[in-house]
Amino acid sequence: MTATHTRAAGPTASSGRTTTYREAMREALREALRTDQRVFLMGEDVGRYGGCFGVSLGLLEEFGPERVRDAPLSESAFVGAGIGAALAGMRPIVEIMTVNFSLLALDQILNNAATLLHMSGGQLPVPIVIRMTTGAGRQLAAQHSHSLEGWYAHIPGLRVLAPATLTDARHMLAPALADPDPVLIFEHGSLYNVSGVLPADAGPVDIGHAAVRRTGTDVSLITYGGCLPKALAAADDLASGGISAEVVDLRSLRPLDDATIGDSVARTHRAVVVDEGWRTGSLAAEISARLTEQHFYDLDAPVERVCSAEVPVPYARRLEQAALPQPDGIVAAARRSVGDLVAAGADAVERRPITGGPG
Amino acid sequence: MTSARTSRMPRPAARPNRQTAHRLALLESMLRVRRFEERCVELYSAARIRGFMHLYIGEEAVAVGVNEALTDDDAVVSTYREHGHALARGVPAEAIMAEMFGKVTGCSRGRGGSMHLFDAGRRFYGGNAIVGGGLPLAAGLALADRMTGLARVTCCFFGDGAFAEGEFHETANLAALWGLPLLLVCENNLYAMGTALARHQAQTDLALRAAGYGMVSWPVDGMDVLAVEDAARRAAEAVRAGAGPHFLEMRTYRFRAHSMYDPDRYRDRAEIEHWKERDPVEGLARRMRDAKELSDKARTALEDRLAAEVDRAVAAADQAPEEPVEDLLTYVTSPVEAIRP
Fold first, then answer.
1. Proportion of chain B in helix, strand, coil states, percent, rounded to 5
2. What number is the average pLDDT over the span A180-201?
3. In this predicted complex, what is the ipTM?
């Protein structure tokens, strides 16, 4: 485990400044546009509007409409155009409003961006970065709230990233742009307003590796993106009950950093995977399977999973919150894992039968 | 509407060369495609070529005429029916045949096959088997040229079937909106796989519809290579000069079925025979013979030369090594050293 892996998420550095996830992301974009003339930002409302989540506010004035390019509501065309521009030597950053809308561009992302390098026998790398929001929690209902990053993590040829901290929001973009292959960055919508201290010494993020955000000895909470704050909150709760939880932030959903995940579980012998995707066929399922394949004899308990309920995300706040992974559900799963069955409760949310799934 | 389109057609600034040598070159290029694909049929029947294979026979005038109007710096985006586009672009027959044999010397190192031919050096961006999928990509190549100030043309071939796909309409809107240097070449061969044009398009005048996006658009006799070249030259020159995207509806016909698997039950034999009377290859050869530009002896010599070229391609592909299975996972992502310099 290198120092990079264990870089703390919080404001441990002696110097730094207070900022938000949104501003950190914007600063990363500004830096990219300033340092490389091949870089341009393209997407719906990225220019005059300032980005539908306010991420690119002010960049149009600074860089002009050629490089901060408002696109029509045509996901397939502007994502495909980004891919073509990348083939021609540009370094496009394409913003899609939400992962739900990215499905309109799925053909371009899967059949072209992810495939051209291989299908051309190595002749056509596609150095594109595609950013989009993901996740629920803002009462936007089913067509603006899903967590489909696990689907993209299924696809060979893509790199899939999920910045969960201010440092990652600020410093993931540069290495993503340096990657000659397509990189998808999933920004959880509930993180944009998170504020904190961005360490002054924060440097480029190692996008190939997971990060241990909190060390612990009893159970590993393995998560990413919007669920990281929930896992950290659960770890605080568990600590007050005498259970030491380690929190692993995957950071890269493809490729998965088996070594960091495995090292953690080899120490704690228990794993809870927290994933806002639906349980069936999820990223959590993949991690659970890998742990069984690679660390069966390290495990003292079955791998637990805390995922979203198998339902299109509902609008009503009470229902929406019930559908999503929550700290108490993570705490319950961790307690089951360490054998504290009474505390976990017999009717814990995550033991509910799946409805509408295969079984 | 027709007169409106006609009035917007650019002037014929550089008429195609009408000299005998030029016509002979066009004939040779079309014949190369024809003979190459006829050999492909034999090799497919012998199970040397596998997978889906879509033949271009009957449409040769389009690829050859359009490519005459492009320079080496321009880009070409193609479909799954792209043997003709690739050959006319200058991709060696040997590299294409080796690709279809799945050999390491293939133009996509055996990863693509008939439907996915690529040649980055010749700016030939293949080889797209999703109907309409190459269109946004082509817009992006054109966008990059526009942003970097390069006076290049990106030419995208696609069929009438793609007109029903959202990707055509999204791309047409984007390209016209942004004035991209894009030449859209629709090969209207009257069938989207097995479905006739009138059965898959609400309005079958495709040039008319493209004009609705504010693009200069006109129909072209796709069975006449000289007409194709003339129209492509005018359009390419206008695109290169910054006039925005242009649309050419090439009215053509494929003499063979959609793919080798297709029993072709949806077309009348009489219809096919009618179109074969307008064979672009034999049509030009006949005109040249009548004009005493092509003697029987010269024709025979040309045929012999092309047969030998195809023979060499097949022999070379045959002898080329297979791609080793140990290399299965190469080219999924770029080598690590490319990521961390």
1. 50, 10, 40
2. 96
3. 0.92
